[in-house]
Amino acid sequence: MRRRRVLGKDEQALWSAFVRDIQPLARRAARPAPLDAAPPAAPAAGPGAERRERVAPSVPAAPPSEVPRLARPGFTLVRSRAEIAIGHRGPGLDDTSWRTLVSGKLRPSRTLDLHGQNAHAAFQRLHGFLIQARSDNLRCVEVITGLGSGRDGGVLRRELPFWLGRPDLRPLILAVVHPHAANQGSVRILLRRARV
Protein backbone atom coordinates (compact mmCIF):
# COMPACT_ATOMS: atom_id res chain seq x y z
CA MET A 1 0.00 0.00 0.00
CA ARG A 2 1.25 3.47 -0.86
CA ARG A 3 2.03 5.89 1.96
CA ARG A 4 0.29 9.21 1.87
CA ARG A 5 2.61 12.19 1.44
CA VAL A 6 2.49 14.79 4.20
CA LEU A 7 2.65 18.42 3.07
CA GLY A 8 5.22 20.74 4.64
CA LYS A 9 4.23 24.06 6.23
CA ASP A 10 5.09 26.10 3.13
CA GLU A 11 3.22 23.67 0.86
CA GLN A 12 0.19 23.73 3.17
CA ALA A 13 0.21 27.55 3.18
CA LEU A 14 0.42 27.62 -0.62
CA TRP A 15 -2.44 25.12 -0.93
CA SER A 16 -4.60 27.07 1.54
CA ALA A 17 -4.02 30.29 -0.40
CA PHE A 18 -4.91 28.50 -3.64
CA VAL A 19 -8.21 27.02 -2.44
CA ARG A 20 -9.33 30.01 -0.36
CA ASP A 21 -11.56 31.52 -3.10
CA ILE A 22 -12.76 28.28 -4.68
CA GLN A 23 -16.50 27.72 -4.47
CA PRO A 24 -18.22 24.39 -5.25
CA LEU A 25 -20.16 24.09 -8.48
CA ALA A 26 -23.93 24.26 -8.33
CA ARG A 27 -25.73 20.92 -8.66
CA ARG A 28 -27.86 22.07 -11.57
CA ALA A 29 -26.94 24.51 -14.29
CA ALA A 30 -28.99 27.67 -13.94
CA ARG A 31 -31.17 28.58 -16.87
CA PRO A 32 -30.03 31.70 -18.72
CA ALA A 33 -32.14 34.76 -17.95
CA PRO A 34 -34.24 36.11 -20.81
CA LEU A 35 -32.72 39.09 -22.61
CA ASP A 36 -35.51 41.44 -21.53
CA ALA A 37 -35.24 40.48 -17.82
CA ALA A 38 -33.99 43.00 -15.29
CA PRO A 39 -30.41 42.57 -14.03
CA PRO A 40 -30.07 40.72 -10.72
CA ALA A 41 -30.16 42.79 -7.54
CA ALA A 42 -26.84 43.69 -5.92
CA PRO A 43 -25.89 41.39 -3.03
CA ALA A 44 -26.31 42.75 0.46
CA ALA A 45 -23.20 44.03 2.17
CA GLY A 46 -21.83 41.47 4.56
CA PRO A 47 -18.60 39.84 5.65
CA GLY A 48 -17.84 38.45 2.15
CA ALA A 49 -19.17 41.41 0.15
CA GLU A 50 -15.76 42.82 -0.78
CA ARG A 51 -14.70 39.48 -2.22
CA ARG A 52 -17.87 39.22 -4.31
CA GLU A 53 -17.30 42.68 -5.77
CA ARG A 54 -13.85 41.76 -7.06
CA VAL A 55 -15.22 38.95 -9.25
CA ALA A 56 -17.02 39.98 -12.41
CA PRO A 57 -20.50 38.38 -12.62
CA SER A 58 -20.06 37.29 -16.22
CA VAL A 59 -16.77 37.42 -18.03
CA PRO A 60 -17.01 36.80 -21.77
CA ALA A 61 -14.91 33.92 -22.98
CA ALA A 62 -11.68 34.97 -24.64
CA PRO A 63 -11.53 34.16 -28.34
CA PRO A 64 -9.26 31.23 -29.11
CA SER A 65 -5.86 32.42 -30.23
CA GLU A 66 -4.20 31.28 -33.42
CA VAL A 67 -1.48 29.56 -31.44
CA PRO A 68 -2.63 27.46 -28.48
CA ARG A 69 -1.49 28.79 -25.09
CA LEU A 70 1.33 26.88 -23.50
CA ALA A 71 1.49 25.60 -19.95
CA ARG A 72 3.63 27.43 -17.43
CA PRO A 73 6.30 25.34 -15.73
CA GLY A 74 4.89 23.46 -12.76
CA PHE A 75 1.30 23.55 -14.02
CA THR A 76 -0.57 20.91 -15.97
CA LEU A 77 -2.34 22.13 -19.08
CA VAL A 78 -5.67 20.47 -19.72
CA ARG A 79 -5.76 20.04 -23.43
CA SER A 80 -9.06 20.14 -25.19
CA ARG A 81 -7.59 19.78 -28.63
CA ALA A 82 -6.67 16.65 -30.49
CA GLU A 83 -3.16 15.32 -30.55
CA ILE A 84 -1.49 13.35 -33.33
CA ALA A 85 0.25 10.24 -32.05
CA ILE A 86 3.81 10.13 -33.31
CA GLY A 87 4.89 6.66 -34.38
CA HIS A 88 1.42 5.10 -34.43
CA ARG A 89 -0.09 3.84 -37.62
CA GLY A 90 -3.42 5.39 -38.44
CA PRO A 91 -6.16 4.19 -40.76
CA GLY A 92 -5.78 4.59 -44.51
CA LEU A 93 -2.09 3.69 -44.72
CA ASP A 94 -0.98 0.54 -46.55
CA ASP A 95 1.70 -1.82 -45.14
CA THR A 96 4.38 -0.95 -47.68
CA SER A 97 4.12 2.81 -47.16
CA TRP A 98 4.12 2.38 -43.38
CA ARG A 99 7.21 0.14 -43.36
CA THR A 100 9.04 2.48 -45.75
CA LEU A 101 8.21 5.49 -43.57
CA VAL A 102 9.10 3.84 -40.24
CA SER A 103 12.37 2.40 -41.52
CA GLY A 104 13.51 5.84 -42.70
CA LYS A 105 13.81 4.79 -46.34
CA LEU A 106 11.20 7.32 -47.45
CA ARG A 107 13.26 10.49 -47.88
CA PRO A 108 11.60 13.86 -47.31
CA SER A 109 11.05 16.15 -50.29
CA ARG A 110 11.38 19.28 -48.10
CA THR A 111 12.64 20.07 -44.63
CA LEU A 112 11.55 22.79 -42.22
CA ASP A 113 13.99 23.70 -39.43
CA LEU A 114 12.31 25.46 -36.48
CA HIS A 115 15.42 25.84 -34.29
CA GLY A 116 15.51 29.16 -32.45
CA GLN A 117 11.88 30.09 -33.20
CA ASN A 118 9.40 31.14 -30.56
CA ALA A 119 6.13 29.16 -30.43
CA HIS A 120 4.06 31.67 -32.39
CA ALA A 121 6.56 32.07 -35.23
CA ALA A 122 7.19 28.31 -35.34
CA PHE A 123 3.48 27.57 -35.62
CA GLN A 124 3.01 30.12 -38.41
CA ARG A 125 5.95 28.69 -40.36
CA LEU A 126 4.76 25.09 -39.83
CA HIS A 127 1.23 25.92 -40.94
CA GLY A 128 2.38 27.65 -44.14
CA PHE A 129 4.94 24.92 -44.82
CA LEU A 130 2.37 22.10 -44.63
CA ILE A 131 -0.24 23.96 -46.69
CA GLN A 132 2.36 24.69 -49.39
CA ALA A 133 3.66 21.10 -49.34
CA ARG A 134 0.14 19.81 -49.83
CA SER A 135 -0.54 22.22 -52.68
CA ASP A 136 2.75 21.10 -54.32
CA ASN A 137 1.54 17.48 -53.95
CA LEU A 138 4.56 16.38 -51.89
CA ARG A 139 4.42 12.98 -50.20
CA CYS A 140 6.90 13.24 -47.32
CA VAL A 141 8.29 16.25 -45.44
CA GLU A 142 10.48 16.61 -42.37
CA VAL A 143 10.07 19.08 -39.50
CA ILE A 144 13.01 19.66 -37.16
CA THR A 145 12.09 21.04 -33.73
CA GLY A 146 15.26 20.15 -31.86
CA LEU A 147 15.42 18.30 -28.57
CA GLY A 148 15.06 21.38 -26.36
CA SER A 149 16.65 22.00 -23.02
CA GLY A 150 13.72 21.19 -20.72
CA ARG A 151 13.24 17.95 -18.84
CA ASP A 152 10.40 16.94 -21.16
CA GLY A 153 11.99 18.50 -24.22
CA GLY A 154 11.57 21.92 -25.72
CA VAL A 155 8.34 23.81 -26.20
CA LEU A 156 8.24 23.19 -29.94
CA ARG A 157 8.79 19.46 -29.56
CA ARG A 158 6.03 19.21 -26.94
CA GLU A 159 3.53 21.31 -28.88
CA LEU A 160 4.10 19.85 -32.36
CA PRO A 161 1.66 16.90 -31.94
CA PHE A 162 -1.09 19.30 -30.87
CA TRP A 163 -0.42 21.68 -33.74
CA LEU A 164 -0.57 18.79 -36.19
CA GLY A 165 -3.84 17.65 -34.61
CA ARG A 166 -5.61 20.94 -35.34
CA PRO A 167 -8.73 20.61 -37.50
CA ASP A 168 -7.14 22.54 -40.39
CA LEU A 169 -3.93 20.44 -40.50
CA ARG A 170 -5.12 16.98 -39.40
CA PRO A 171 -6.86 16.10 -42.69
CA LEU A 172 -3.58 16.67 -44.60
CA ILE A 173 -1.61 14.08 -42.60
CA LEU A 174 -1.52 10.29 -42.91
CA ALA A 175 1.25 9.48 -40.41
CA VAL A 176 3.97 11.09 -38.31
CA VAL A 177 7.12 9.25 -37.17
CA HIS A 178 10.58 10.03 -35.84
CA PRO A 179 13.18 9.29 -38.53
CA HIS A 180 14.97 7.02 -36.04
CA ALA A 181 14.64 6.31 -32.32
CA ALA A 182 17.79 8.24 -31.37
CA ASN A 183 16.48 11.47 -32.91
CA GLN A 184 13.36 12.65 -31.09
CA GLY A 185 14.00 16.23 -32.24
CA SER A 186 12.61 15.78 -35.73
CA VAL A 187 9.62 14.11 -37.36
CA ARG A 188 8.78 12.90 -40.81
CA ILE A 189 5.24 13.59 -41.93
CA LEU A 190 3.55 11.50 -44.61
CA LEU A 191 0.99 13.71 -46.33
CA ARG A 192 -2.22 12.56 -47.96
CA ARG A 193 -2.31 12.81 -51.69
CA ALA A 194 -4.47 15.58 -53.06
CA ARG A 195 -7.63 14.24 -54.67
CA VAL A 196 -8.05 15.23 -58.26
Q: Would you spell out the secondary-structure blueprint of this structure?
A:
Blueprint: H1 9-19, H2 49-54, H3 95-103, E1 110-113, H4 119-135, E2 140-144, H5 155-164, E3 173-177, E4 186-191
Parallel strand pairs: 1-2
Antiparallel strand pairs: 2-4, 3-4
Biased composition (Low complexity): 29-48
Protein name: DNA mismatch repair protein
Domain Smr: 112-192
The number of helical segments is 5
The percentage of residues in β strands lies in 5-15%
CATH architecture of the domain at 95-191: 2-Layer Sandwich
Mean pLDDT, to the nearest integer, reads 74
How many E-type strands?
4
Class inferred from helices and paired strands: alpha+beta
Largest sheet: 4 strands, mixed
The poorly predicted ranges are 49-69, 74-80
Protein name: DNA mismatch repair protein
Biased composition (Low complexity): 29-48
Domain Smr: 112-192
InterPro entries: Smr_dom, Smr_dom_sf
Outline of this structure?
With 196 residues, this protein is of the alpha+beta class.
Describe this structure in words.
The protein has 196 residues and is an alpha+beta fold. The chain has a domain at 95-191: Ribosomal Protein S8, Chain: A, domain 1 (2-Layer Sandwich). The protein contains five helices and four strands. The chain has a four-stranded mixed beta sheet, sandwiched between helices. Strand 1, helix 4 and strand 2 (140-144) form a beta-alpha-beta unit. The longest helix has 17 residues, at 119-135. Mean pLDDT is 74; it is low at 49-69 and 74-80.
